[in-house]
Design goal:
The chain is built from 13 helices and 19 strands. By secondary structure, the protein is of the alpha+beta class. The site of adenosine-5'-triphosphate (ATP) has 19 residues, from strand 8, strand 11 and strand 16.
Length: 395
Amino acid sequence: MSHPPLSGRILPGSMVGGQPATLGVMGGGQLGRMFVHAAQRMGYFTAVLDPDAASPAGLVSHHHIQTAYLDEQGLAQLMQRCAAITTEFENVPAPALFTLGAHRPVAPGADAVAIAQDRAQEKAHFTRCGVPVAPNAVIETPEQLTAVQDDLLPGILKTARMGYDGKGQVRVKTRSELAAAWDALKHVPCVLEKMLPLAAECSVIVARGWDGQMVNFPVQRNLHREGILAVTEVFEGNVPPALAAQAIAATKSIAEGLRYVGVLCVEFFILQDGSLVVNEMAPRPHNSGHYSIDACDHSQFDLQVRTLAGLPLVQPRLHSPSIMLNLLGDIWLAFQDAPPWDQVLALPGTHLHLYGKLKASQGRKMGHLNITGPTVDEVRVTALAAASILGIEPF
Ligand code: ATP
Ligand code: MG
């Protein structure tokens, strides 16, 4: 690996090189913000590198280095401040992580992040690990476009890099639609995936330490709407137990195969014939793991802190059935002002998380609502009541 492995532990509240033990994060979005919250609760100082003055994580961190991700001075400042550095955003340029990794422990490492940044490389890794992927073809040249087999249609053309929340994806039914879609995507490298008959979607989050120890969260069942995660449900029996075991084993082998350090999420499709196909991975905590803040004894962000600092990892335990509703900008646009949080918070077991974003737009992730309760039925009733107040379609 390129980065120096962590030598010893970074104990919370200790002094490192004459300054309070400080953990750094590349990227200042909501995932960085929740990492900062978890790190600070344990007594660490934090530093965030993000160009945006109003970034959700920058607003709550001890230090906010406000430069571009590849800015040499910014990276030098981050290294000077931090005992170890993580990332919250998979499109952080891998070269920035290589630079940081030459001087500081960086988890996940640049090599793992580089694979996750490229759908073609990512799929090759899944295949190496023996985990089935959707039938697909890499399209980088006009010849490859012509050579596409008819049985990949209808399909989804996805940019190989920089996609998120369904952006950079076009659904195509015919060869002419495929050609038009590749034109629209400006001929950047893409992967065409066969459209699969989905019964459901799920994801698994693991945390793996510098010493190779690995723990996992329970399987999350996810509902996407228009390419964006809408609802995550986590409770015993949310997916058939055999499939859950298969998804957890696949995620562990994917993490192991990367010698991954940090928190990794792998997303899966459950097909109508009951088989499991891997979709993609995120080299960081994941939106489908936000429920863990309120429903588990250790959240995905707690474990991100522990892996980075070399602290012991313990298997997280789900202590309540849970449903998470994503709160998209659409809700703010519909209410024209603050949504009626007072009505939502009057419901039992509702936990509101807003990311401090001042401007709402359609599809923008502004926050999430976690619902916990004594039984799955009660959690579902509350979640549906909250959804109805907020104008979120029932599920
Ligand atoms: P994110 O990174 O936010 O999870 P993304 O932009 O990388 O999203 P994908 O995960 O590739 O997008 O796809 C988004 C959603 O589109 C999936 O969760 C699934 O609902 C649907 N989808 C993607 N690929 C396929 C496929 N091959 N067959 C059927 N549905 C698909
Ligand atoms: Mg996805």
